[in-house]
Amino acid sequence: METCMNDKVKFGLTIVLIAIMGLFAGAWAITVERTAPLLEVRPAPPPYPSNFSFRGDLEVFYIAKTVISSINLTLVIILLGTYISLYRKTKSEFVVGLIVFALVLLFYTLVSNPIVIYLAGFRPFGLGPFAMLPDMFALIALGVLLYLTLKY
């Protein structure tokens, strides 16, 4: 009975942590994103020529990407911690593979996160919904993996 309660508490805390991370990432993205009118023609950022313009990107896609990517980062860190804990108990080679897999996913989520991209001095533009779709698919896969990891 205690194990079932601990699992429910662990799952609940995981959901709360993911929600908090998503809220912080969304708040950051909304405050940083410029308030250009949507779909209005505007000049492209450097290094494009000054006479080059593009139809405004929907900033909502980049805000969604920031939130989704930050949630992915949280999920990967939780998975990595779970796998390291599992390895300490079992010393299984399979779990070492899961740890390497989680580390690679951690690096992916770090470098694809718009917060890291912004801090490095770059700005994404011109991708439309394709800015967030890869992270959305990764979120679904990580959610399934985390669910299965916490269930068994």
Your description of this structure?
- The chain is mainly alpha-helical and 152 residues long.
- It has one domain (2-151).
- It has helices at residues 2-32, 59-90, 93-112, 114-119, 133-151; strands spanning 41-43, 53-55.
- Strands 1-2 form a two-stranded antiparallel ribbon.
- The longest helix has 32 residues, at 59-90.
Terminal CA distance:
16 Å
Order of helices and strands: HEEHHHH
Helix/sheet category: mainly alpha
Spatial ordering of strands, largest sheet: 1-2
How much strand content do the residues show? under 5%
User: Care to count the β-strands?
Assistant: 2
| Largest sheet report | 2 strands, antiparallel
Helix count equals 5
Q: Extract low-pLDDT stretches.
A: none
3D shape: elongated
The whole-number mean of residue pLDDT values reads: 79
How many structural domains are formed by the residues? 1
Radius of gyration: 19 Å
Helix content: over 70%
Blueprint (SSEs and pairs):
Elements: H1 2-32, E1 41-43, E2 53-55, H2 59-90, H3 93-112, H4 114-119, H5 133-151
Antiparallel strand pairs: 1-2
Helix pairs in contact: 1-2, 2-3, 2-5
Short description:
The chain has 152 residues and is mostly helical. The protein has one domain. Helices cover 71% and strands 4% of the residues.
Features:
152 residues, two-stranded antiparallel ribbon, single chain, elongated, mainly alpha
